[in-house]
Design brief:
This protein has about 60 residues and is an alpha+beta fold. The chain has one domain. About 40% of the residues lie in helices and about 30% in strands. A 3-stranded antiparallel beta sheet has the order 1-2-3. Strand 1 and strand 2 form a beta hairpin. The longest helix has 25 residues, at about 35-59.
Length: about 60
């Protein structure tokens, strides 16, 4: 998903009262449950590692 916001850094906020995690990028917000947030965190980390590996291999 691209929201067209390149200058607004993403932020992540725990919302314990409702059991959700808010992922905010500019004016857009994505609300996910804890399990989905855990999975997304792992997916993001894996993608970053893959990008780092491909960048290092190209250098």
């Amino acid at each position: 998903m691209s929201v067209g916001v390149s200058k607004a850094p993403p932020s992540v906020v725990a919302m314990p009262a409702v059991g959700m995690v808010a992922i905010k990028v500019g004016a857009a917000s994505l609300y996910v449950e804890q399990e989905e947030a855990d999975r997304l965190a792992l997916d993001i980390q894996q993608a970053a590692l893959e990008l780092r590996s491909s960048t290092a291999a190209a250098a």
